Each structure stands twice: as structure tokens, then as C-alpha cells.
Fold each of these.
Amino acid sequence: MKGVGIGIIGLGNVGGGTLTILAENAAEIARKLGFPLRVAAVCSRHPQAKTLPAGLGPALVTSDWREVVAHPEVEIVAELVGGTSVAAEIVEAALRAGKSVVTANKELVALRGVELYHLAERHGAALAMEASVCGGIPIHAVLREGIAGDRIEALFGILNGTSNYILTEIEQRGAPFAEVLQEAQRLGYAEADPAADVDGWDARSKLALLASLAFGVRLEPSAIPTEGIRRVSPTDFEYARQLGCTIRLLCSARRAEGGLFVSVRPALLPLDTIMAGVRGAYNAVWVRGAFGADTFYYGRGAGPLPTGVAVVSDLMRVARGLRPAPAHRVPPFAASTLEPADPLPIGRQQRPWYLRFRIKDRPGIIRDLATILARQSISIDAVLQLPGQDKQNLPFVITLESSPEAAVRAALEEMQALDFMVEPPLAMPIERGI
Amino acid sequence: MKGVGIGIIGLGNVGGGTLTILAENAAEIARKLGFPLRVAAVCSRHPQAKTLPAGLGPALVTSDWREVVAHPEVEIVAELVGGTSVAAEIVEAALRAGKSVVTANKELVALRGVELYHLAERHGAALAMEASVCGGIPIHAVLREGIAGDRIEALFGILNGTSNYILTEIEQRGAPFAEVLQEAQRLGYAEADPAADVDGWDARSKLALLASLAFGVRLEPSAIPTEGIRRVSPTDFEYARQLGCTIRLLCSARRAEGGLFVSVRPALLPLDTIMAGVRGAYNAVWVRGAFGADTFYYGRGAGPLPTGVAVVSDLMRVARGLRPAPAHRVPPFAASTLEPADPLPIGRQQRPWYLRFRIKDRPGIIRDLATILARQSISIDAVLQLPGQDKQNLPFVITLESSPEAAVRAALEEMQALDFMVEPPLAMPIERGI
């Protein structure tokens, strides 16, 4: 099938990430869609200073966004310049030309989203704005498709990565806010003017958009009571811990009789909840449905590539609408075709291991086990033994450095025959990378 | 717009949950779609023993599924009988009649999913099977839409709620597997024959389906190396804790050179990871993308209503295909119209509170504060004070029982004027319900 032509306007962080993914993931994208996405035109303020990623194919490169919108092959325009003035002009011009638009522009969507959406409708074009909020979490797809059948009762979020990073640092290092902020600025995690992040304004406009999605209402950001994190101190984390809690900048919106309660502010969360486990520059959303109970979503707060994934996923969704499949086909799989897969032999997999033995104790046991492991070229990481155990049925543990499973299996088989074994050893991989 | 007629076959747990949602959430569903879903026919083996929920409207009730498939108003058939023989007949008959099908049947999809999907395609019908795996987590929508632009590198899951419940109980109570299993059976959390859950077979077939979705491959469940949790003991949790880890039945599928490594087995996970925080009868999926970094999804493992939400969301998605909106419209919001919302005055919200003071210490401080709180009819929950603090700038905390925010604000204002206050009190709500 004929590919869909894409125009990218704005080659900053998100534009760059989007182009990288369109180039490097082109084959997978074409496989999932059944046709390719072709970048037909690109606009940058300094086109001569930009090198397009290899593999994109020939494209018009210009500093005039109107050329991209007018380009005959461009069917979808990705507006990635940010701000609300030029960006609005671009989106309007594209929609009026009947071209569909994908935008990652939170300010524009918050300010004029509904109006632009109706403009798109009038011109028979699509407007996709999923990348504009929580680019790192596919929360739009979840609310629009995944749990569409439910009625949302409440939505809680950690929606600002910078403030969550700062709170986590205060929590873990016991350093005061001002010191942590300074360091975050030095490391580039916080802006020179940190107000939007630490005073809750960024989180507030994201909550306004998510509440629109979840509850089907228009909510002005300025209507949301908002408090930042400047006053949260290490002492507060100490007291919170005494209460079994931690502190997060919590965005919340929940139905109550007669309307919604909404707020953005630091709040205490019990330490044993999933939400309290959100540390560093991550975002998370907790959704409570009237029927489907609670679901939780977690991912990177921002970044060129995570946001780029959201932009490309939007491009694909809009492109599917432009090249509708025969009939009202609803592909159940991410790919339209499925190749049969033979999994790799698990023996080749390398992992650190936990081996737990139960033995009748006698001298020389560690030596015997270590000899078998050495014969398989497996390195021991640690030997652990809890105190006060029954010597006739003594549990102890050997952990192994990363080793191929086949070698571990071979060693286990040999070990099993040893006279001091009460039962076959229990082996479990240690998954540190999740 | 004319509503879409639904036929429900099978009124067991999931069928019952689906009908409940279709009845009780009808207005919200119609608002999101722009047209209603009407239950036109229902099939149950014992139709006389079933009472349909109020508000469904008149529907054919029969014990013959063929009548549902043949019903002229039925455009989508929901196959909710389970098993693989009659269920297969139903799905095939419906698709051959050009009717779209929604199924929550994991066994059928695992066994014949691809074949049925091609049958649907040939007859111009849709086949939606999202409810069949992880009904409580909208992972299909995420993989198909939300992060479609990414290339999945690895997928990890906790996919069996029963075994996760058992492991959590062993972890928290230190009781042995056999005892915990017995109790889980008594409480109805585990089947009389627990093999499918505790030996990893159920998780294995779910992993096979998720890997198909994530990697675009066909994977036979029998090709996945699988080990259950029967041998995991309280001692293993003690050793794991020494290693900073806990133990979960981990399903994993990850790309490596030349193919996929897949396995289902107990594994050690670091305690400070989000995945380790998954406790009780919940499911979770961790996805690592080549571009978008890591995302994480969490929800109920099963249950009539969570699975019902997945079925109804599928019905809505298929129905949207049957009544396509004008042009290639991609609604950015869950609802097609947005009502303006005035949030409720936050003062009316009831919450337990954390108040942190910094004071110059002198006798009578608690009395003064307690007097103000009592005047606002606010009950104190606890007074906390860390040892060894500066008496001239003494931080201490009062927690309040659930109180309206307006009363708390009024009290805070009065407190602020007290001569011993070094700075205005810091107030944060305590969110125990997330």
C-alpha cells in the first residue's frame, strides 16, 4: 500500500527524537501498519545546522513551515515547535488545508485544544495530541480505548518529573530543598527558573488535560488549587516515615457528589503503596474505575525519545485512519502478520543466580560445591547462611555471578547426587534490571 | 445515530459483569460513542435462573446460542462461555455470518487466535480479544496504540494473581507454601486443583499471548520453559531479603541476538523496584522499549467486573468501527463532547491531615493548638515529636482525623498568629486510599 507522507515542523529535542525513531524503527513501523511512514518534508529554523538521520530517504528541508504544510506529499503535519503563537498558526493552517495534525504541545492543547479539535472535525482532518501530556506513559490510549467501558471515579498522578526527582533526593539524602534544587539545576534536571516545576504549575496544566480525558469535562488549569514543594523539608520525610508514609507532589481529581474535587499539592502516601515507589524523574497515573477497580501506569516523565515514541504512535494511529484497512478490521496484534517464533534455548541465557540448598551439615560442603561450580567456570558471588538452623536440614544460599543457564543446570545436576543433599537445590535467577 | 446491537453468549462471572456494566454505565458509554450499545439478545444455559440487570431494555433471552448469532439486531457477538469447543463453534458461526466477535476466552485465543482472526478478515468482521489476557490491565491498547511507535526489547510480567497472592502471603506471614495454599483454597482464591496457577501454566499461556502482541511473533505456550512456585519457602524470602530482594513468579520475554529468551519461573527482584511492590492478587506488566524507555502497567488479575470492563471496552472499539465517525476523526478525548466543569470548592473535601509546626518551645503550646482545633470541631489523631531538636526552632507534627479542609484552613489561619510560631504551619493531606 502507498505510504503516508509526514511533515515534521520543529527539530528541537522532541523533533529530533521523532526523526530518530522514524528512521531507525522504519521497518517495524511499516510491518505494524502494512505501509511505511515517509518523511516528505522537514522544517527547522536553522536547517543548514541539522543533519537528518540516515535512512530517512530524500526529504524537503526548509526553514519555512508553510512549505511543509503545502507540500503535496505531506498528509500529516507534526507540530513540534512548542509555544502557542507560531504553533497555533501551523496547526490551523494544516487543518484548514485538510491535513491531519499531530502535536506534542501541552500549552497549545491546554489553551485551545477543544477549539482546534472542532476545526479539525470541520475540515475532515484528524488532530492527535496524545504526546502533549505524559509523553512517557500511554495514558491517552488507556483512557480512550483500554478502559473506555469503565466510569472513572478518581485519577491520581505524579505528573512532574523534576519535582519528583527533588522530593526523592530530599527523602534519600536528607538534604534541604534549596540544596537539592541547586544540584538539580547544575545537573540539568531543573530549569534556571524552576517555578513551573516546583510550584506545581506544570503538574496543574497536565492534570487539567488528564481530567478532561478521564471525566469528559473542560477544566481550566487556573481552577485547580495548587501548592508546590518548596516547603517540604527532610524533617517532614522523617515524620512521614514515622507515620508509614512518604511525600509526593500529588495531582488528584475525583468525583464527589455534585462535581469534582481537584488539587495539586504535596501529600503523604503510605510507603507500601505502588505510588510511593515512584522515585526520580518518573511520572505515574493511578486510575480508579467504578467497575474495573484500580489500574496504575508508570513511565518516564519526559525526554526526546519517550516523547518521540508518543508522537510516532500518534502518527501511526492517524495514518491508519488515512489508509483504512478493508472492512472494519480491528487488529488484535501489534503487527498485522505474525511470524512463528522458536524461542532461544534458555541454556544460553546469562543471569546472576540464587541457589538454595538444604543439606546435612558436615565439613567440606562449600569446597565440594565450589569445585563443581569452578569446573563449569561459574564464579561465586556470595555464600549466605542464616543463624540458628537445624544442622540435619540446613538451608543456605550461594549466589552466582552472571553465568549461562546451561552451565548452572549442569552444575545443579552434579550437585544433586552429592550425599549431603536433603533435597535438590532450588535455583532462581536474580533479575536486577527491572 | 442508530445504536449497535449486542448479543451476549454466556452468563457466568464475566458475562454477568459485562451485563452489569452495559446496564449501569449505559449513559457514559453512549456519551463516549455518540450512540448507545443495546443488548438485543442473551444466551444462558439456564435462562430461567437468571435475572437480567434493570435498565437493559427488552432482549431475547434464550438457551440456544444460534438464536443470538442469527438475531437480526445483533451486530456484535460477545462469546463469554469459555472452553474451546462450543466457544469455537460460536465464534466461527458469528464470523461466517459477518458478525463481529468479542471474546474473553484465553484458551481459545491461544489455541486458534490467528486462524480466527484471518476468518474474521475474510468475512469483513472484526475480532477483538483484548479481554482474554490480563483483563484488569489495558495492555493490548498500550501495545497496539499507546506505544506502537516503539520497538519492544523486553516484556516482564506478573501474570497470575493466585500465585502472586500465595507468594505475598508466604512473604508477609512466613507461613509455608502448603499452609498458605490451603488457606487460599478455603478463601476461594485458589482452585481445588491449583496446578494451573501454582505450576505456572496459566501464566505461561498469558505470556505466549503477550509476547505475540509485543514482538509480533507466534509463540507456542509449550515452547516456554516453565517452573512453578511450590518449592519457594519462607526461608527463601529471608535469604532474598538479605540480598535486598523479594521473590515473584516472573514471566519474561526479551530480545537477544538471534531470537527471544522466554521463561516463566520464580525469580528474585530488588525490593526497591516497582515490580517488587506488586502484592496480592494483582497483575503487572513491565515493558522495555528500544526508544521510549520503560513503562509499567498494573491492575486486578481477574474478576467479573475488571474483565467485564475489558469486554465492554472491546465492544465499544468494535462498535466505533461499525459506525465510523465522519472523516478520519481521531477523538483525543474519551468523550466526544466536553462539558465545562467547575471544580467543587476544595474546602468541602474531607481528608486526614498532617500539620507540621516550627515553634519556639514553651509550656502550653499543645493546649493552645488543641483549643483552636476543638473550636473547629477537628479531632487530633496523634502528636509526634522527634528527639534532640533545637528548642528555639522545634519541629513537631499533629495529625488530624478526617476533617473538612475549610475547617483545617480556618484553624491554620488562627494558629499562624500565635506568638510561638517560627513560620506558618505546613499542612498536607494524608492519602491512604491510593
Amino acid sequence: MEILENKSISCVKGFRAAAVSAGLKKGGKLDMGLVVSDVPAVAAGVFTTNIVKAAPVQIDMKHIKNKTTRAFVINSGNANACTGQQGLDDAESETAKVASALGFSSDEVLAYSTGVIGVPLPMDKINAGIDNCLDSLRDGGDDLAKAIMTTDTKEKSIYLRMQLSGKDVDICGIAKGSGMIHPNMGTMLSFVATDCNITKEMLTRIQKDVTAGTFNMVTVDGDTSTNDSATIIANGEAGNTLIDRPDTQDYECFSEAVYYVTEFLSKAIAADGEGATRFIEVYVYGADDINQARTLARSVAGSSLVKAAMHGADANWGRVLCAMGYSGAQFDQNKVDVSFESEAGSIDVFLKGVPLKFDEEQASEILTKDSIRISVNLNSGEAQAKSWGCDLTEEYVKINGDYRS
Amino acid sequence: MEILENKSISCVKGFRAAAVSAGLKKGGKLDMGLVVSDVPAVAAGVFTTNIVKAAPVQIDMKHIKNKTTRAFVINSGNANACTGQQGLDDAESETAKVASALGFSSDEVLAYSTGVIGVPLPMDKINAGIDNCLDSLRDGGDDLAKAIMTTDTKEKSIYLRMQLSGKDVDICGIAKGSGMIHPNMGTMLSFVATDCNITKEMLTRIQKDVTAGTFNMVTVDGDTSTNDSATIIANGEAGNTLIDRPDTQDYECFSEAVYYVTEFLSKAIAADGEGATRFIEVYVYGADDINQARTLARSVAGSSLVKAAMHGADANWGRVLCAMGYSGAQFDQNKVDVSFESEAGSIDVFLKGVPLKFDEEQASEILTKDSIRISVNLNSGEAQAKSWGCDLTEEYVKINGDYRS
């Protein structure tokens, strides 16, 4: 498995992509994109569990059930959420327009939107944007990761290559996130395209598995935005032997690669949280089971008080314990160890339920680095989990105090 | 029922109180207090559901089971949480010292701490503080609400008088809060003292009922700090006919008065959230049942994105819908109405699931007031609930980035 510099979905065999400016964002920024597979492909998707689902999510949850999938049409700048029947009609109309132009059926096309809630899509701009995307499909798409950004400050993309049954198999993933005060409240979109030859059933299984350990450790399941979507599409153009069973080395190998891609994107989303100056990884180990480990890790990474303490480079482990305590997971506080780590070193602050005297200066030196790990050992079992977040800053409040204008 | 200007627990018949500086806070600030009933009283308490319970909470949960209660000893500046066996020993020693000096049994005394987590109580200062409290019990106590403050900027107290069976019955409540980014993460302490003649059973019942509708709508049950405690004590000195049944007018009347006191304190806690510039009431009505209404109201009031929008006076009702959607409660978004209100007027922004065009200037004028109400009508049933919070500000982040120093 190697990581390539190439970061465009259009470099994966049999995929084309486009990114254009449709005038949804101010200042001529890129705000629409299209991904097309030249051959019928299979796709798997995970969508928000929020009761209030954006119109494109409602449409996609039907379309993803189709045996084959051919295209994604994506816009930023408008979420098409809380837009009633009009919103559903508009999302359907987008998929129909793309399908009609390319000779697909409507349910082979998925639509994605992110941006402001409650404003109907300006369909004249959307339709013109789709036309522009179709025109530039041949050579475009390198900027797709940019076109899906909202308050993101950096593009998030990764490109992997591996060999399966003697064939090169490529995977390209792009994502957008941000809005990270709770790791679960920013709209997260992720698109993974691969030329792997795999059944829809196996792809769905892998997508579900990796999402639980990666995206859901940034974007908490059951506690999500109206538009969150993570989709993977595989068109088989690599020509590897079909992956149709889970108990094979190819399945294992491909699954690991997808995990690598989604973990990379999850961390990139966390690191680029709104206003963030610091990336935080919470590592819970020695847990009785993975659900306990995940619940605790997410609770700590999502605690506003922990995030604010990390912003202040304050080794306030009490807030770590407090966030674990209200997480809903059971644990024995008298067995817990807590330490803080970064490239500047590691410091133990809590051991078997007892606070340790530690050098505040050393702790502060560790915590002023850009990337921090909070490690929690439950000293009970063998399970572990990681969750990712960022610090809470004054800048976050500024960004979110007046997002719509 | 009348509200008196007098705001000290020591004005309630049969109670004495003291507030002193024990050197736990910097600069000679008041940081310890004592409340004593001259006669055996009954008490009821509600404590944090956080798995990580501070030492005094663990002690109090045992002592509150005693038939009679005589005293509360309280300190700010140190939470005595995550302090292991030493912390438990220290909290027990506090109650024993007070009991011994006043001729009570240890389990008639409750201890409360709030402040930094994980630092053992400086027992020399605590013991000297208790001695000072005992010395000033006769004439002190007016400043007790000040002595329990941490990052609170205002004292929170209220004094009510009512007549029951021809006797004056007084209720005095004091509280501290703050730390309000989630309405559930700041340590909340509340003390209510009354001379009402009531059984422990009835007092416990009232305490439980009012907490669910008031303190728990600020400090969410199951999602609380290590030290949260709300205690009520009644010594019977008013001489009213004993309240020993719920189906009486006296029970109803007293219960309403306690509700009034705790709702007042809850709102005062919300309005004085760390860094807050704006008080927010979320009012959910037309709900099928009270649990649905409470869950939705709390989710909206606790949403960091809603709080940040309110700080920016941004009528971003999409975030209201989003917070409702991930609350865990079921509802039909196509029936929902949302409006914003303040002393500057009221504006409807969402009607039966459809966004309304509204005057942004008028909305902004409404939302720049100090006290805002977000009203949500589910148009389904008859149940309703209110939750209280505050806006999220840059100042909050500053306060919490370096709380320990």
C-alpha cells in the first residue's frame, strides 16, 4: 500500500470529476462538483441519524438502495435542509438532470448539499452549475475537494494504491468538515472512489465497519447535522478478482486501505475544526469492550471544557475525568490513569484514581504543541478506541456568531 | 406569597449562618460558609449523576438518609473531587468537626465543595475556616451566597414568605452556577432553607418534582459535574400544621413556593453563565408529553451553535431545528413552528415545517436584547417545558482556557 501525491478522484480508473463555480458562494469560489463513473458501479453510504434530514439525504437514502450507482452531484453554500417539499423536488430535479444528460437512471445519481439551512436551492444557478460540470467533466475535478468546503480552511484528500490479485487498485478520498465545538455538529461530507472490483454487499459491510471507528469518532452517530453523508463508490475497473466474501486476504487488505483513508480524513476534519489551533486525539485503552472505549473517548474529545483547557495549554485532567463520568459509560475511577502527550514528551497526571504531582511547566510545554494526545488507561480489559477533536477558541465563537451573513 | 428584600438564610426562623474567608480563594475573598438549624430539621437532596462523584457528594449521599439534618458546611475554591481516599477522609473530618462543636451527630452534617478538581483540601485552612464560621454564626451569614461563588459574577438568592394554617412560613434559597457552555457542565450548588413544618417524605417528594422542572433544565440530569448538589432543609419553626400528605392545599401551596424559588435560582444561574451577555429561554409547547418537551428544550438551549448564533444576534433557526433533530426525541418537523421573542417584539421564522421570509433587521433588533426566548410549537399535544441557557462568547473561552491559574 502506497500513498500517492495525486489527490484527484478523476485519477482513479473509470472516474471523471468536475468542480465549478455556480455562484452559490460569494466571490466566484468553487461551490459545485460532479463525480461520474464511466461504467456501472456499486456504492455504499452512511447518512445522518438526525431526525431532521436534509432533502438530498432523504433522496439519497432511497437511491443508495439501487444496485448500481453512477454519479454524485454536490454543492456547497446551501444545505437544502428544512426546505419542505420544494427541497425534495429540487434534489430530485438535480439527480434527474444529471441522469438525463449522461444516460443514467435517476436513482443511479446521488445529491449532496452543505451550507446554510432553510434557504431553497437557487435552481437557476444549480442547473447552470450542472451544465458547467458536465462540460468540464473531461479535464476537471482536481479542485473537487475545494468545491465542497464551507468554513474549512484546508482541502482534505488522500490517494492510496495497493495491489490485489496482481492488479493496481486505487482509492481516492475527499472530505469536508468543520464546525467542531461538538465533534458532532458540523456537516461532514466524505466521498471515496475506488476502482476495486467488489460486490455492493461487501462494500456496504466495509463502509459500516470503518465508519464506526473513524467518521463516527469525529461525527457522533445519533448526534449529527442535518446533512452528514459518507459515501463510497467502486467501479471494478482495476480488474482485480471480485471481492465477494469477507474471509479473504483481499477483503482484509482492501478493508484496511479504506480504513486508512477514512481515518486520515477524520483526523483532517478534526484538525481543521472551526477556529481550531490544536488537534486533539483522545486514546482510551484497557477498556472492557470497544463500545465503552468509544463512548469515553468521544465524551472527552467532545467536552467543551476539555477543549477550552487544551486551548489554554492547561493540564486540567479533572475535566477529562468529569467528561468520562457523564459519558454514560461505566468504569472504575480508582483504576484510571491519565497522561498527556505531544512531540515535546509525555506526562502522567493521574494514576489509579489518584492525582500525581507534576511539573506544570513541563505539562505546559507538552500542551502548547499543535497536536496533543490525551491517553486514558482504564486498566480493566483489552479494548481501545481513539476519538479526534480540536481545541475551543475565541475564533470559533466569532465564526459561529454570524455564519449566515 | 410575597417576595422579601431580605435574602439571608439566617433570617429564616431557627437558622443561623456564617460566611468567612478561609484563604482557599486568592485575595481574602469569602470562600467558606456554614448553615445551622437550632433544632433538628429534615432535609432532602439531589446529587450529581456523574459517575465521578466528588468526595463530599459521596459522603452527603449517605448522610442525607439520616432522619434529621442540622448543618451544611460549604467551601468554594476547591472541589475535593478526584482526590481518592484522602478526599473522603477530609470530607468526613469536616462533618465530624462541625458535629462535635455543635453537639450533633456526624451524619446530621452535610459537606459541599466547589472549585478546582483534583487538589486535596488544605485541611489546616478548612479547619480554621470552620472555627471562624462557628465564631461568627450568631451575626453572620448575609454573605453566604457570595462565599459559594466560583466564576459567578453575581450572588443568587431569593426570599419568599407565605401563610400556611395562619402562620408565616419563610423560604430562602441561594445558589451558585456558571460554567455554562453546556448548561450541564458547571458545578451547581443550591441551598434552600425553610421554617416550614413538613415531613422528610413530603420534602423529598417536592424536591424531586421541582428539580426535574427547574435545576435539571439548566443542569441536565445524567450529564452533570462531579459536585452538583441541591439541598433543601426544613426545621418546622414556623409552627404551621404539619404537611404530611400530598393531597392538601398546604402541600400544593408550599410546593409552588419551592418551585418558584428553584426556578428563580435556575434562571439566575443561566443568566450568569461564564462569559454570558445574554439570557436564553427555550420554550417548547404543543408537545405530546413532558419528557419530549424537556428533551427538546434542553437540546436547543444546550446547543453550542444555537448559543453562538444568539451571541451574534443571528436568527439562525436552522440550528434550532438541527438541535431538536439530534436530541433523541421524536417529532414531526412538518408541524413545527419556531419564533424568537424579546422585549423588542416577536418574530415568526418557521411555520409548519416551512421557512418564513422575515425581516432580518427586525429579527436582529429582537435578538440584541439581554433576554431572549426561543419558542417552539410542536402542534401535537398539550405538554410544555422551559429550559434556560445563555449565549456562547469569546469570553467563555478565555475563562475556561486557563481556569486553574
